[in-house]
Write a structure and sequence with these properties.
It is built from 21 helices and twelve strands. It is an alpha/beta fold. The radius of gyration is 35 Å and the shape is elongated.
Length: 624
């Protein structure tokens, strides 16, 4: 347990094992997860608090019942005090005072028990609701199409999942329950003071309630605007922070720390100003309501004292009235604080509603068919596409890729090569035309059945937190260790894995920062091999590698491409030359099409690219 850092865990000492077992016995037993996921989402009504809570109305009703009992026991004190004064103290009856005191103690104990039960019950209910909304928002984010993440800042998406849901959590766990408590308290106190003395109660209502109402309406209008600004500014803070952290290497390389600090200072300053405006509004309203409450108590003491002197009100009733009056103003002031929570939660609900109302731009049809096991024949049928429909990236592409064929796209940066791959994986749908696999229009097949048969190796492979095994088995989580090791052997990283302290169970640091570019790329190829895709897409998979790493990876490609349809997006012609056919993409069109030898012999664009590559590489590589 106390060994040097970096050593593997050696197990639990025998003398500690009994204590560990006792600790595990006390751990809650969580049921096996049955969560599912579907790209299809039925008709949805706008997200509101009422619709979110409606399925849980029975549990909410139980919570409200507990709140009612809690409030009744809490407000029994002034009534018992009045009886003790009028029936015991004034009349000199000690037994009455003792009996009422014991009854008072019993209500305090009962109130404590009910409050404990209510807190535990509503706390668990609140956590269940938070789990539900977190899963709902996360599932919806997973369902959205690629263009949403291209256009929306990652920091803003993080804000929806963090601070916005936390604000909603505060509203559900503290705001609504406290609203019920204070609402019941206000109702009970109103009934009691009118029961005691209508004239004195009317003095309170007519002198205090109108002023409180006017102030509350002003506060509602002013705080609604300020809290909306606060939610917007915190999203800006999170977005800037996320971007700075993601690009920290570039920030350091270009010495941008000072400039980024100034930029973040300004963004945080805007957030501070929005919070200051919110606090300024609350600072006017809070002391204002305190003053009105104190003035109301002074009026009650004056009028009530005059009534006691004229024997129209007892001392006990006046005492109870003053005590209830404190209980009358306290809920109003609490409701003011709760309104802050409500405004923050309401602003969060608006943001979550907008997110949940966002529909995928690449939807799955409700009656989408399951794509059967494919051979891998791909057809782009007069395809036109633009990320902005007014500016097409691809124009009238008509292309047939045979099953088992390796096809490479080459061309200048921005010509549209990677866009073709995104259409085949159905990250986007063409503006015009169709993309077909084995004759199936991709718009009419389920996304799951399509992507289970596709493998994608991008230029910068993404490695997730976890072990090397977890990353290789990402698309096949049920694969055995032997299958993972076989995938490592096939792509040529078995020696690397053997040198690691824990083999395939060695942790991968964030995004694989402890591995070289070539090692990360080989892991991505092993991941694709283990997934056994029918169609493999390599999006510039060797463009950022040195020659030695490229040679290792191209050897792995020989194994990986065998028997599969492959689409290669290539900048390096050494990779493209492995293909059966090559398409030269220029200005969104296929300008040339043929094998390496055919294109070189034609003396066109590809021949120029090949000649340039030969002159720079200083060697002649025959066609593969």
């Amino acid at each position: 347990m106390g060994g040097p850092p970096g050593l593997p865990f050696a197990g639990i000492p025998p003398e500690m094992q009994p204590r560990v077992e006792k600790l595990l016995d006390r751990e809650p037993k969580h049921p096996k997860s049955t969560a599912g996921f579907s790209h299809v989402r039925g008709p949805q009504r706008p997200f509101t608090l009422g619709r979110f809570l409606r399925p849980h109305w029975l549990a909410l009703a139980a919570g409200v019942a507990m709140v009612a009992v809690e409030t009744l026991t809490q407000q029994a004190g002034p009534l018992l005090t009045q009886q003790a004064i009028d029936q015991g103290v004034v009349k000199g009856k000690t037994g009455v005072v003792v009996t009422i005191s014991l009854l008072y103690l019993a209500t305090v104990i009962l109130n404590g028990i009910v409050t404990w039960l209510r807190t535990a019950f509503t706390g668990r209910l609140g956590q269940q609701l938070m789990k539900e909304i977190r899963v709902r928002v996360f599932s919806h984010i997973q369902r959205l199409s690629l263009d949403f993440f291209t256009e929306e800042k990652a920091g803003r998406i993080m804000t929806r999942m963090t601070s916005d849901i936390e604000a909603l959590s505060d509203l559900l766990q503290d705001g609504i329950i406290n609203l019920a408590v204070q609402g019941f308290t206000l109702l009970i106190v109103m009934v009691v003071i009118f029961t005691y003395n209508v004239r004195l109660a009317l003095v309170v209502v007519l002198a205090v309630v109108p002023v409180m109402t006017v102030m509350t309406l002003w506060f509602r209008s002013a705080s609604e605007k300020t809290y909306g600004r606060v939610r917007e500014r915190i999203a800006d803070v999170m977005a800037d922070l996320q971007e700075s952290l993601s690009g920290i290497r570039i920030v350091a390389a270009y010495n941008r720390q000072r400039f980024n600090n100034v930029k973040h200072r300004n963004i945080v300053g805007d957030h501070m100003e929005a919070n200051v405006d919110s606090a300024r509004v609350a600072a006017v309203y809070g002391p204002g309501t305190d003053f009105v409450g104190s003035a109301g108590q002074a009026i009650v003491l004056f009028v009530g004292g005059w009534m006691v002197l004229h024997h129209t009100l007892t001392v006990g009733e006046l005492t109870a009235f003053v005590l209830y009056l404190s209980a009358f103003f306290a809920p109003i002031q609490q409701l003011v604080q709760l309104y802050n929570t409500y405004q923050s939660g309401q602003a969060a609900i608006v943001k979550l509603r907008d997110l949940l109302a966002t529909e995928p731009s690449v939807p799955e049809e409700t009656e989408a068919e399951e794509l059967p096991l494919i051979d891998g024949a791909i057809r782009l049928e007069h395809v036109t596409f633009g990320y902005d429909p007014a500016r097409p990236v691809l124009r009238d592409i008509d292309l047939q890729i045979a099953a088992g064929e390796t096809f490479a796209f080459v061309g200048p940066t921005g010509a549209g090569k990677s866009t073709v791959a995104k259409l085949v994986t159905r990250f986007y749908d063409p503006t015009e035309g169709r993309v077909l696999v084995d004759g199936h229009d991709l718009r009419h097949v389920s996304l799951g059945s399509l992507r289970r048969q596709l493998g994608v190796v991008p230029q910068e492979p993404f490695l997730f937190a976890g072990s090397i095994r977890d990353n290789i088995a990402f698309a096949a989580p049920d694969a055995s260790d032997d299958e993972v090791l076989e995938a490592c052997r096939v792509v040529g990283i078995d020696e690397l894995v053997a040198r690691l302290p824990d083999g395939i169970h060695t942790p991968v640091f964030e995004r694989g920062s402890s591995l070289s570019s070539g090692e990360r790329q080989l892991l991505a190829l092993a991941r694709a091999f283990l997934a056994q895709p029918r169609v493999l897409i390599l999006d510039e998979a060797t463009s950022s590698l040195d020659l030695r790493s490229e040679a290792v990876i191209e050897h792995a490609l020989d194994v990986l491409l065998e028997g599969r349809t492959a689409i290669i997006i290539a900048h390096r012609l050494s990779t493209a030359m492995r293909a059966n056919r090559i398409g030269v993409v220029l200005d969104g069109r296929i300008a040339e099409l043929g094998s390496h030898d055919e294109l070189v012999a034609a003396g066109g664009l590809y021949a120029e690219m090949y000649a340039t590559w030969i002159s720079h590489s200083g060697e002649h590589t025959p066609a593969a």
